[in-house]
Amino acid sequence: MNELVRETYRYRELIWALAMKELKIRYKRSVLGFLWALLNPMLLMLVLSVVFSTIMKINIPHYAIFLLSVLLPWTFFSQSLSYAVESIVGNADLIKKVRVAKLVFPVAAVASNMINLLLSIIPLALIVVLMGHPFHLTWIYLPVPLLALTIFTLGATFFFAAANVYYRDVAHILQIVLQAWFYITPIIYSIDFFPEKYRWIFKLNPIQFVLNGFRLSVYYGLLPTPESIFASFLCAFIALFIGFAVFRRHQNDFVFYV
CA nearest 88: which of 11, 20, 171, 150? Predict the structure, then answer.
């Protein structure tokens, strides 16, 4: 882990440049540009709120806030993986020509999506005000689950970025995994919808602990229990340890397969 911190700091300017490059490419030739980072959550909220609170009749007060409080961090997680899985293969020319720490590429993918996530918090706050939902003081707790989510995401991106170098099917399989993962995670629904005897199943989902802090802070105005906080960081660091260990072990061979 010392290597991860050391190399990230050493190449911080390159990571920032790659992150900004990714964002510029994403919004290239877009009239609104970075404003889409603000508009996307609001448009997504509108569509999903109509579907689930009007058509499917999910009876949750201020459902848009209930949904976005977890959907935004989930979007950060899923988009980070989607971009990072191709980060090594997509930068093959640079890797072959320049001696640089390979970890900068998945880290840059996470950094670019972190900027999107931080920007999307602005429309979330506006929606809370406009809908008359209480603006809880527990918002100040958000950096804690955000840190756990970032650590967990980094671990996942390292693993999938490395795996995709050797098996290019990984990028396609990952999209299917993310779709399934989305529906088995309490994002569009509450875990309270299920009988208590079945709720233990959700504890097998590691990202559930990480995302729980966002919904509790924004929607319910509550703080997670110490056990839940511990579980979120435990899952996050296990993911980082496994992911970075796999990445570090194989990084010197990437140049032969990209």
Answer: 171
How many helices and strands (H and E) does the chain possess? 11, 0
User: Which amino acid appears at position 4 of this protein?
Assistant: L
- The answer to whether the beta carbons of residues 77 and 206 sit under 8 Å apart is no
The residue type found at 218 is: V
Spatial separation of the C-alpha atoms in residues 139 and 214, rounded to whole Å: 9
Does 61 or 217 have the greater pLDDT score?
Answer: 217
Question: Residue 226 class from Cβ within 10 Å (0-12 exposed, 13-18 middle, 19+ buried)?
Answer: exposed
CA distance 56 to 49: 10
Amino acid identity at 85: V
Residue among 188, 67, 170, 83 at smallest CA distance from 128: 67
The whole-number pLDDT of residue 126 equals 83
Q: What does the chain come to in residues?
A: 258
Q: What is the pTM of this model?
A: 0.89
Q: Minimal CA–CA distance to 69: which of 13, 133, 112, 153?
A: 133
